[in-house]
Amino acid sequence: MKDLSESTTPQAPSTTIIEALDTIQDCARGSRLSNEFWEQCAAEFDYLCKALELSRNQILLLALMCENGGAMSWYGIGEFLGISRLKAMSLTPDLDDLVDKRWITPASVRERGLRNQAYAPVWGVVRALRNNVKFEPENIENLSIQSFVDRLARYMANEGEDSDISFSDNLKWIMRFAGLNSHLPLCREVGEFIDEVSGPLLLLMVADYARYSGTDDEGLTLNEISAWFKRYYMFDRIADELMNGRHELFRHGLIEHATDEGYVDVDRYRLTLKAREELLDGFTLHKGPRSQRSTLNDNSLLKPDEIPPRPMFYNEKEKQQLESLKFILSQKGFDSVRSRLDESGLRRGIACLFYGSPGTGKTETVLQIARETGRPVMRVDIAGMRDKFVGESEKNIKALFNRYKLMCRNCEVIPILFFNEADALIGTRFETTRSSVEKMDNAMQNIILQELETLDGIMIATTNLTGALDHAFDRRFLFKIEFTRPGIEAKCAIWQSMLPELSELEIKKLAEEFDFSGGQIENISRKIKIEYVISGRKPAFDQIRAFCLNESLNRTTRPKVGY
Predict the structure, then answer these.
(1) What is the pLDDT of residues 353-384, one digit of tens each?
(2) Which residues contact 195 (CB under 8 A, 6 or more apart)?
(3) What is the per-residue pLDDT across 187-236, written as a single tens digit (0 to 9) for each?
(4) DSSP line for 345-405
(5) Is the full-model pTM beyond 0.85?
(6) Whole-number Å distance between alpha carbons of 176 and 178
(7) What average pLDDT score do residues 484-509 get?
């Protein structure tokens, strides 16, 4: 910390900036801004007015915010000082001037169940005061396109900003930043939009391009956009316009749906070539590796060539059913089936239900069918569909189907919409709802039932709990394939594929003695390979059989109860 005795900055005797602010906030608490308060802190105010070139009211507000550790609302200021909220609002001119001087920024806080307007120091203020120097705001006016976009990208990424500040809090700063640089084509374009969202959204796209261009993460997903705009009262309409390509930024040719190796991702958006050429002329991407996002979109497409081939073994009945399904979902078979259904005036969608015991290969079968038929898979994060806020879960499931419909229209090959372990979404509906959770589950199921009625693509759901399946789903699933535990022949084939070093006799003994699913046999195979790594020796047959005994567990034997 700089020694103020060596500084030419005016000061009260033996006082630093932080100490003077601390004295002011301590005396201000509950003071009701009395004359006694102003007189008591006169020396500190005189010192800080000269050192920081701010008014007394502004120094008071700054002291309160520093003590509070963040944003303060009118209510918070009034409560601290012991004055009414209305009287606190008389400080508005001083707050606005601090905003113009770029010492503080509009923010918001949640108080008494409501989100209220507030103000917070910008990044760097507290650091400067702590180092006993006057804060010098960063120059953000009349910048070059390079400096503007670099600064914008840092701000949007909350590098040095309060990560809890929402889009609505930062809206004024973003638009003011653009207004101070209206000589740039990008900022002039932003200023021409009438609505509150198009301009900031375009700037958000520009920041994303600056940070992620040239990586697999280029483009903003709807969830990422939602994190900024969700509190905007018309966000649902904006989301629908984005997914369907009707938003104003689409119409101006400034953004487009992202693509990945020919597949259109309707849930991700990026700048067009036109936007980059016309609005970012003179901007150069920084050399070196681009930033990478920390998370990936849960609903991104899994491409068929990303699915590793894996041998699958079934009992004869499901084998025949799956072979028929594979033909129907092949490009040739699918087109023929859809044409025939069209001619008959019947629904063209193919909805399938794979049900049965755990470990019987339901999930892997979906992936292998996708790989063999060349179809991408749109995986559904069922847990991510649920939201603690009323009505949000229903919106999420509706938005999911909207994305899938648009994906079907834009992709050359119709993808598979995959609901894995969908027990919670297709279980028996509650006849009488006693809680908000039960109401939400019923509402989500009703939406899925409606969407299945108009399905024009391919949906596959897997479940372990067939007994709890709601009857309304029975007729909605065109194909219902039960995955039973493998018979002797299928188990022998699975053992052979997993442990080819075993003899035919040993394989037959294991298949006859243990009623294992494919998943359980895979578990034993992994244990054997781990044992080999630990001991350096392949386990003998007796040890393999011991692994099997441990895997099966004795679930029929129960401890005795009573006397």
Answers:
(1) 998 888 888 999 999 999 999 999 988 877 66
(2) 248
(3) 999 999 988 889 999 999 999 999 888 777 788 888 788 777 766 667 77
(4) T----EEEEEEESTTSSHHHHHHHHHHHHT--EEE--HHHH--SSTTHHHHHHHHHHHHHH
(5) no
(6) 5
(7) 87
User: Using alpha carbons only, what angle is made at residue 301 by residues 295 and 305, rounded to the nearest 5 degrees?
Assistant: 115
Strand bridging mode 255-260 / 220-221: unpaired
Rounded Cα distance between 451 and 409, Å, is 16
Q: How many CA atoms lie less than 13 Å away from 295 in the CB half-sphere?
A: 7
Residues composing the chain: 563
Joined together, the tokens standing for residue 240 give 């629908």
Residue with tokens 């400067």: 128
Residue 394, pLDDT score: 75
Radius of gyration of the chain (CA): 32
Strands of 234-331 (E only): list them.
255-260, 263-271, 301-302
| Coil, strand or helix at 41 | coil
Residue type, 276: R
- DSSP3 helix / strand / coil % (the chain, rounded to 5): 50, 10, 35
At 422 the pLDDT is 80
CA angle centred on 418, ends 412 and 420, rounded to 5° = 165
- In this structure, the number of other CB atoms found within 10 A of the CB of residue 272 comes to 17
If you search the block for the tokens 């989301």, which residue do you land on?
A: 239
Q: Which two tokens stand for residue 217?
A: 């993460």
- Residues 159-182 have pLDDT tens digits of 434 434 445 556 777 888 899 899
- Tokens representing 145? 């396109």
Which DSSP helix (H) or strand (E) runs through 477? none
Structure tokens at 121: 């120091």
Residue of 537, 483, 541, 532 whose CA lies nearest to 508: 541
Tell me which residue of 460, 540, 534, 462 sits closest to 506, measured CA to CA. Answer: 540
